[in-house]
Structures are given as C-alpha cells and as structure tokens.
Amino acid sequence: MKKNIAEIINVSNEIYDKGLVSGKAGNISVRFKQNNKDVVAITPTLKSLSDLNEEDIVLVDMDGNTLTKGKPSSEVGMHLEIYKKRSDVNAIVHTHSPYATGFSFSSKNIKRLEGFGTITTPYLASIDYEKPGSDELATKTSENMENEDVLILKKHGVICVGENLKEAKLLAVFVEESAKTQFITYLLNSVEDKI
Asked: Does the pLDDT value for residue 195 go beyond 60?
C-alpha cells in the first residue's frame, strides 16, 4: 500500500511539473489488493497534485466508501466505474493538459499516432461534455473506455488508463505530445510559404 501511495505522489508531482495539470485540477488513482479485496488509492479533492503527502491520499472500496481520513477526488465515481468494467486496468490518470484539452474544446479530433499500440481508428475516442464529478460522466466514461485506453472528455480533459501507473502516465504524456504536434502542424499548414 505504501508503495502505491508513494507512486501516486511521485506521478502527481511529475505530471504537474510537465504542465499536464495546473491549480487543483486532475486526479490519479491506483487499484490494489488488500485482504483479498480491491482497494483504490486516489488523490484528494481540492488539493494541488504538486503538493501531496502520504496523508492526503484517500483509500476507498469499490463502492466508494472511504477507508481512511480525507475526501477523495470528486471524480472518484468515474475511476471506480472504469475499474469495474476493466479488470486489466489498475491505474488511471486524468489530466487537463493544455493541448489535448484545447482540442477537446474545438471541433477537431486528435489523430492516433504510432507509439501506443495498433492504430485501429484514425482518431482518439471522445465523449460529449458531462458535468465533472457527475454520475453521468462516470457512466459515459466507463462505457466508452471498455475498449479504449484513452478518452477525450469534451470541454474537460483527458483520461488515460493502464495496467500500472507508469503505463497510464506515459500514455497521458504521449497524448499531450501528439496533440501538441498536431496543433503545430495545423498552424504551419495555415501559413502560406513566402520563400
């Protein structure tokens, strides 16, 4: 358990330092076994991912009941619903990374680029806006992630899942870099070459 909590804190600091979250936005969780039951460690609500310590991380059961002090992220329901549908997922990283989130507020989609698995569809999957922390968002996200490891939440952000926290974090970084590359490409293609 302590290893999982330390990993959440390290990844929280890392994605904050990389600019994938700012202020008090974003959340991270890890699922692990405790006494033969699934337990989820998740970042707290209303606290910056840049400034977490061990006592801030909240443990919940799969029904959302808190097992420790503190208040879990308001989007704990979204994490739990994904875990219930995906036995292969043990970590979730939800960011508001600027380029990918910029795409989420636009009419443009983020193209799938080589680097994370086989390209089966041309664009990353997305869902229409639902209020953050709502049951509707939790349901819609989990339903649309049954066969996806990345989901763009329109007018909100990005959610990435993985077998472990390292994989989920790497995917979040890759999605943001892909969005940045495409943004630069759109800009360059919109400027007439004067040479």
From this structure: no
Instruction: List, for residues 110-137, the tens digit of each pLDDT value.
Output: 998 877 667 788 999 999 999 999 999 9
Where helices occur in 38-147 by DSSP H, the ranges are 76-85, 98-104, 135-144
Catalytic residue among 7, 14, 55, 75: 75
Q: Where are the alpha helices (DSSP H) in the chain?
A: 2-17, 76-85, 98-104, 135-144, 165-190
How many C-beta neighbours within 10 Å does residue 113 have?
A: 15
Note whether 88 and 163 are within 8 A (CB).
Answer: yes
Is 75 a residue of the active site? yes
**Phi/psi at 168 (5° precision):** -65, -40
Contact 190, 115 (CB under 8 A): no
